[in-house]
Amino acid sequence: MRVALGIAYRGSAYQGWQSQPGGRTVQDRVDAALSAFADRPVRCICAGRTDAGVHALNQVIHFDTGVDRTAESWVRGTNRFLPDDIAVQWCRFVDDAFHSRANAKGRRYAYLLLESRIRPALEAGQVGWSFRALDGAAMRAAAEVLLGEHDFTAFRSAECQAPSPVKTLRSLGIDRRGDYWRFDFDGDAFLHHMIRNIMGCLIAVGSGARDAAWLAGVLMDRDRALAAATFSPDGLHFIGPYYDAVHAIPEHTPAMSWLP
């Protein structure tokens, strides 16, 4: 049977999602836990790879297995073998044609940013930080130029393996909540470091160092060297993918109520 799971994790201690020889990735821990619970090798496929230090609230994975367990057993049994900063949230038995990555209609991310003269402490590792005051109206105006289908080469890392730099950014919401900013990204897919590179540019605009016209030029020129430096991974949270309703994949986990 094919099994789909929702995984939440704090990415601070890991070298990203994708398995690596050193074994210090989220996938390495998840595959090991699933294999221990199933008592046979299991290797999963995820909806979206996250970078080192990036968190997830509803990473969706799938795998095939001949092991017969209830949905609740897959959740609780696998969690017994996972560290405290990774936990299975839900389980669904899906059609063999379901693919966590290929069937995703889009993906959502949120970036949390503290605006303060003092660096984060209690929330360290969970939020980005700007010690400069930010102008929300300026950042929203700059964000408008990024909406729609574009060649996002200027926001793509040199290590990006995506076959095309053309992606569609469906929405980019920017809201302030006390001393915190939340940036919400919704797109069909994202290039390696794309959101963090956009964040660096939005902070440059928000702090007054650049303006919206500059960001439009960066996008048009498709030159990574013209954009701002890649911003910290600390505040980036993979909210999760979304699918056609026929797959009945949950889009909410408890941590979404916790996230500011």
Overview features:
Alpha-Beta Plaits; alpha+beta; 6 helices; 260 residues; ten-stranded mixed β-sheet
Provide an overview of this structure.
The protein has 6 helices and 10 strands, in the order E-H-E-E-H-E-E-E-H-E-E-E-H-H-E-H. The protein is an alpha+beta fold. The chain folds into 2 domains: 2-103, 2-Layer Sandwich (Alpha-Beta Plaits); 108-237, Alpha-Beta Plaits, CATH 3.30.70.660. Strands 1, 2, 3, 4, 5, 6, 7, 8, 9 and 10 form a 10-stranded mixed sheet that branches. Helix 3 packs across helix 4 and helix 3 runs parallel beside helix 5. The longest helix has 13 residues, at 26-38. The radius of gyration is 19 Å and the shape is globular.
Q: CATH-wise, what's the superfamily of the largest domain?
A: Pseudouridine synthase I, catalytic domain, C-terminal subdomain
CATH class of the largest domain: Alpha Beta
Ends: how far apart?
37 Å
- H/E series: EHEEHEEEHEEEHHEH
